[in-house]
Amino acid sequence: MRSSLLIILFFFCSGLFAQTIPGRVINKQTKEPLAYAEIQLGEDTQVLTNIDGSFEIQLEKDLDSIRFSYVGYKTLKVQISKDTRYLQVGMTPVYEQLQTVMISDGKNPADLIIEKAIKNREKNDPEKALPGFKYKAYTKFIIDNELGNIEMIADSTSAAMQTIINEGRGYLSERVSEHLYDQKRGGKEKVLGLRTAGFKDPVYNVLAMDINPFSLYKKDYNLYKTEYAGPLADNAFKNYEYRILDTTATERPAYLVYFKPKREKVVAGLEGILYLDTVSFAIQKAKAQLLGAIRLEVNHTYKYYPEKDLWFPAGQSTKIRPGSGGKEIAVFGGTIQMGAVQQKKGVLSTIFGSEEISRDIYLNSVTSNYEIDLDYTGKIENPGAEIDINEVAVSKPEEFWAANRQLEYDVRDKATEKKVDSLLKAGNIERKIEVKKAMASGSYPLGFWNVDLSKIFKFSNYEGIRLGFGGSTNDRFSEKYNLNGYTTYGFKDEVLKYSAGTQIYLNKKTGTNLNFSITKDIQEAASFKYLKGENTFAILVPRFVNINFYYTYNRYAAGLEHRITPKLDTQFQIAREEITQTRAYSFLHEGRSYEEYNLAKATLSFIWRPFSKFLNTPESNIILEKEFPQFTGQIEQSFSSFGGDFNFTRIGFKAEHEIKRLDRSRTEFILEGNYGFGDLPLTHTFHANPNNPDRENVFRRFSIAGRNSFETMYYNEFFSDRQATIHIRHQLRPFIISKSFQPEMVFITRYAIGDFDNQDKHQDIAFNTLNHGYAESGIELNKILAGFGLGAAYRYGGYHLERFKKNFAFKFTLQLQL
């Protein structure tokens, strides 16, 4: 009771001593807002307006005089009192002064300053100027509302997010990390302590959001999964315009340089101010904002170290809340349009599993750096993971937090811990997080069973409708192993397929698992599946519908998975397969014709992502940011012993690269090579992913285009025992016709070359080789309507056909995002 009275008294007394007065500064003649106008309160207090000219000031006494100044405008003094509710200030331009500056200097003085800042960037960027450094950081991440209500009002009928947010603060997470940096090996964050109020398990999603990026010196500024053009990048003048606002009167004076995007519709940019040291042109402080459908504000602070002549980041705050509408802005890896904040999936729904977001909500993340060592030369352990969470980080005692908190842990923070638990239970939030995590891997959790969504329904010309059920047990069943399997039935071939297996977790942190399985199913002839690197779940597999050359197999397999480093994941498998044919085919080997045969195989597969960023938790390895290039490889050996009929080797290697640009255009490359030698039956050779049904009419060949398939190549037209393919896709930046209609044009070129020895060993089937080289090019116009688009491709080169329409393929395209 006493504490409640103290809280009420605190807020009541706060209202007596200070009054918040909102306002706006505009150009008196054009009525346009003046971004970052200077407001002087007394001798020591100074604030700047936001990019829309808005401001809030605290009136400490009954009557006060404040001064408004802005470069090129006449300075104003305004009297305000406790009766002032809103203040709009119109400032008058002084054109004569502006013209004098431009004539005398000849060039925009702000541009000269930015040129010097870019030139001195490597001397001022700590990651370039220092061989290594180390520091600790305390971060407090909050989702709250502006009303400041700390009372808990139960409302289980509201949507989950609405329930939490409308009743006051809805989420609080604290983190203490040690950051290590080596110029040769890069940076690493070691999470020493982590706690999330109300959750039994930490919400690791928060660590993956790049809420507080370290530096503004980089070419691209990554914030909330969105890349913005850097205001000090080499091409900064292409993306920004600059203006000097003022010079600070501090011990180390700084230029206040205002920057504003030039090409908002082409390149995502921030609007803000840089405090640039007048001597070294280093960043002393920075502020960036986005105002539109949402309000985003980022503040960077730096501390000067004279012994290094270097400004080092001291902290950062990031705040985001719904805006009043207006221009479309980029955030959360996409764009948010006017009036669409509640419907856009973003960071809040990632945490809470809800798309209902209160207009009163705000998200705030504050980081404070301390124990900074600019002479660190120590070793960085486990460099493969950019973020490594200590096993005891989630169970740190209160003494640890009291010793490491660099920011006040106030009354509202403490109240949050007491109330969020019941609110989360009322909204079933942890269940929604569980569903989102499972859906990311293509499953849906039902009790102790994760249902595999890819096994429910498929359709092909061979099987007709294929219905099934499958999945695996989850940690509710056991934390040491899972049971997995599926059963499915094709109504055209009238065959039941199934699989049953188990996975034993030897070490979850390193992904070390023992796998055992028994499977009876069909597989496309001449296909090559990587054990690692294949995404087995897809809403639609375009080629699957028209495949007509399968073989059936009974497989008995055992394997071991192990993640050597976060960037290198491997799997080894031994298996016995019993192969039978679904169509007329036989393999002539040593004078005997084989239609059915057994294989004894050993397979080693890997995926290597040297440039991707990973989060290493005590239980798993989570990819934070998928970067390219990445490499997938596999070697498979079949033995003519251990019950096998043939001795052969198959090798596959795939390199994928993607170049993303700030204007949302991108170029993709996929280079793959396959090589087989020994006693290879046709079922285990290679095809180049053909995706064209062999029908006379071009519209009867109409199908859905794939990502790395040859759209003009007919099924079963080519087989190879060695081949190489390259796929190049170049997507132009979207055509912004309206906010809801932004189609994307893609130009595609593909090439394949291969060969085949001893074709006469493969009986009852005719096919060609790729030794003359196969080429096709095409164009796609994607996202015309609800993810659908249209595409066309044309075949040319060594296998160009005489009839034009046989070389031409017309396709649907489909791009869906979960």
Task: Give structural notes.
- It is a single chain.
- With 818 residues, the protein is mainly beta.
- The protein is 13% helix and 46% strand.
- It folds into three domains: 14-94, Immunoglobulin-like (Sandwich); 115-413, no CATH class; 508-814, Porin, CATH 2.40.160.
- It is built from twelve helices and 48 strands.
- It has a 19-stranded mixed sheet that branches. A 13-stranded mixed sheet has the order 13-14-15-16-17-18-21-8-9-10-22-35-36, with helices on both faces.
- Helix 6 packs antiparallel against helix 10 (411-427).
Helix coverage percent: 10-25%
β-strand number: 48
Low-confidence regions: 1-17, 96-105, 147-168, 328-358
Radius of gyration: 31 Å
Summary, kept brief:
The chain is built from 12 helices and 48 strands.
Can you tag this structure with a few keywords?
818 residues, 13-stranded mixed sheet, 3 domains, disordered N terminus, Immunoglobulin-like, 12 helices, Porin, 19-stranded mixed sheet, mainly beta
Topology:
Blueprint (H helix, E strand, L loop, with lengths): L1 H16 L1 E9 L10 E4 L3 E4 L5 E6 L3 E7 L6 E6 L5 E5 L3 H11 L3 H11 L1 H4 L1 H4 L2 E14 L14 H7 L4 E12 L3 E11 L23 E4 L2 E4 L6 H4 E8 L6 E8 L9 E7 L5 E9 L2 E12 L4 E13 L6 E3 L2 E3 L10 H6 L8 E13 L13 E3 L8 H7 L6 H17 L1 H12 L2 E4 L2 E4 L4 E4 L3 E10 L7 E10 L4 E13 L4 E13 L25 E16 L2 E14 L4 E4 L2 E3 L2 E12 L4 E4 L4 E5 L4 E10 L8 E13 L5 E13 L11 E3 L10 E2 L5 E5 L7 E10 L12 E12 L6 E2 L10 E12 L2 E10 L6 H4 E7 L4
Parallel strand pairs: 1-7, 10-22, 22-35, 40-42, 41-48
Antiparallel strand pairs: 1-4, 2-3, 2-5, 5-6, 8-9, 8-21, 9-10, 11-12, 13-14, 14-15, 15-16, 16-17, 17-18, 18-21, 19-20, 23-24, 24-26, 25-26, 26-27, 27-28, 28-29, 29-30, 30-31, 31-34, 32-33, 32-45, 34-37, 35-36, 37-38, 38-39, 39-43, 43-44, 44-46, 46-47, 47-48
